[in-house]
Amino acid sequence: MMSATGVRGRRFVGSADAAGAQIRPATEADQSEITRIVRSSNINPFGLHWPRFLIAEDQGRITGVGQVKQHGDGSRELASIAVVPEYRHKGVATAVVNALLARESGVLYLTCRRQMGPFYNRFGFVTVGREEMSPYFRRIAWATNPPRFLVRLFGFGEEGGLIMKRAASPAATSPSPDAP
Predict the structure, then answer these.
(1) What is the pLDDT of residues 27-74, one digit of tens each?
(2) How far, in Å, CA of 33 to CA of 77, rounded?
(3) Tell me: domain 2-172, CATH 3.40.630.30, correct?
(4) pTM
(5) Separation CA 167–CA 126 (nearest Å)
(6) Cβ-based neighbour number of residue 40 at 10 Å
(7) Backbone CA torsion sign across 63, 84, 34, 110
(8) Within 10 Å of residue 136's Cβ, how many Cβ atoms?
(9) Listing from the earlier edge strand, what are the strands of the sheet with 161-166?
(10) Is residue 30 within 8 Å of 38, Cβ to Cβ?
(11) What distance in Å separates the CA atoms of residue 120 and residue 22, rounded to the nearest whole number?
């Protein structure tokens, strides 16, 4: 297990509140809780296969989850970052993201709600245009910002979303402890 301060000996942003959290690989027994947490967070509920997940745990309770998944075109995505409501804004998501990034050295993508962009900027992710996206993300780009007529017709996608990319750089695995 890795503590919330365990990646390269650096404390995670917000780790004072998440100090009791332990980050560990998921087990098959965690599958139903992973699914429940992701679905209750209203994020993409597809591709929730437990072997790809890391779990944040506090005194035996799963408090947050996250994964990196590979797509058919070879691109990799930081995905399914979700925290149970009573543990939000306490550094749990930051600890999960840091632990996942510590295991990755290549380019990573993610999709997120527009308001989450600044959170992921702290980890080196930047919003990208279609020309910088892998084929998989070019195909799904319409879903993050659907055409206006669909928004009016069906009432979805009003927030809009982002596709972000983090360049291959092992030096950028965690935000500065002084980051806001």
Answers:
(1) 999 999 999 999 999 888 999 999 999 999 999 999 999 999 999 999
(2) 21
(3) yes
(4) 0.79
(5) 9
(6) 12
(7) negative
(8) 17
(9) 2-3, 22-25, 53-58, 61-70, 76-83, 108-113, 161-166, 126-127
(10) no
(11) 21
Q: State the amino acid at position 164 in one-letter form.
A: M
Q: Which two tokens stand for residue 130?
A: 């279609």
**For the chain, which residues make up each domain, given as ranges?**
2-172
Name the residue type at position 178. D
Separation of alpha carbons 152 and 22, rounded Å:
44
pLDDT in tens, 6-33: 433 333 333 334 556 799 999 999 999 9
134: which DSSP letter?
Answer: -
Structure tokens belonging to residue 156: 């979805």
DSSP per residue over 141-163, as a string?
HHHHS--HHHHHHH---SS-EEE
